[in-house]
Amino acid sequence: MIVRAFLLALLVFASVTGFGGPASAFTSGVWEGGPNQDDNGKFSDCTMTAQSDSGVLLAFVISRNLDWGVALVDDRWSLDVGSVEDVALAVDSRKPIPAIAKVVDPHGILVPLENTDPVMKALRHGRKLTISTPSDRLSFELTGTNEALATLANCVSEHLQAEKASGGPGISAQAKPASENKANPNKLFTPAEAMTFAANLLASAGITDYQLVDPAENPVANFDAVWTYPNGIIGALVGYKDMSAVDLDQAANLVMADDAKSCKGDFASGKKLSAPVDSLSVRRLYTGCHTKGKSIEIHYTLVKTESGHLIQIAHLNMGNATGDIANADSAFLQAAVLPSFK
Which CATH architecture has domain 175-340? Predict the structure, then answer.
C-alpha cells in the first residue's frame, strides 16, 4: 500500500529530489514530476504535482509496488491522522465518482486508486478535475495529464529496471525462488516481473480499459502476463533474454509453424506491415485456426530490444471478441512508447 512516507515527500516536493538516475524530473502541461527516495536512499515512488488557484497541491503518486494514488496537500489544514473522509472526484461534466480519502498527514489526504478505475480514464483525457471534500471544493486544470501519467509510469519502470541492472531489488523483489527460475533459463521475466512490465507498458500506451489476470488463472500458458479488454480481446506478453542473434523473420516463421502444428482444422497465417516503426526491430504477424464450432485468431507483435531481448505480445480472439484485433497492438507501436522496450 501507499504509505505516509510518500505524502511526506510531497510536502517538500516543490524542489523535486534529485535521484540522479533515469527518468529524472519532468514537466508536462501543468505537471512537474520526478522520482523520490526513502530515508535509506532507496527508490520509493514517482510523483507529479500541480497547484490549484487556492494554493492546494494536487499530486499523483505511483509507488515502487505499482500502487496508484492521488493526494491533496495544504499547509493550512490541521487534520486528524488516521481518519477517513468521503470525497468525490469529477472530471469536466461527468458524474462525480465517490471515493474514500485517508488522512495520512495533518496537512494532507490520500485517495488510493486503481489504474483501471473509471476516474483514471477520465483524468487522462479530461480538462478539469474537481475534488469535493467535506469542507471544500477544489478544482485543478488537467493540461498535459495523459502524457504526464504515461511519463510517471515510465519513471517507475525505469528506476526499477535500473535497480535490477545494478544488482538491487528492482522488479525482482517479488520474483520466484531461484530454483523455479532455473526451469526457464531463457525467460526474461518471472510472472511477477512480467505483470509489472505489462502494467507499465499499458500505462505508457495510454491504455486504461483493461484488467490484469491473476497468474494463477492464466488462460494462455505460454505467456507470463495476461490482461483482458472489455471487448473480449485477450492481451498477453512474454519476454526472452539474450536473443540478439535471433533473426526476427525466422522468429516470426517459428511462431506461425508452432501454431500450425497445434491447429487441427483450417489454418491461416501471414506477416503484417510493421510501418511506421523500425522494421528492423519489430515484426507483426497473425495466425488463425478454424475448427468445427470453434475459432481462434491471434495477432502477434515481436519486438527486439536495444539490450538484445525479445518481447512477444499477442492479442487473441477466442471466438467471442469484438473490435479491431488486427490493430490491437497499435498503441504499443507509437514512437513515444517504443522506448519502453529496453
Answer: 3-Layer(aba) Sandwich (3.40)
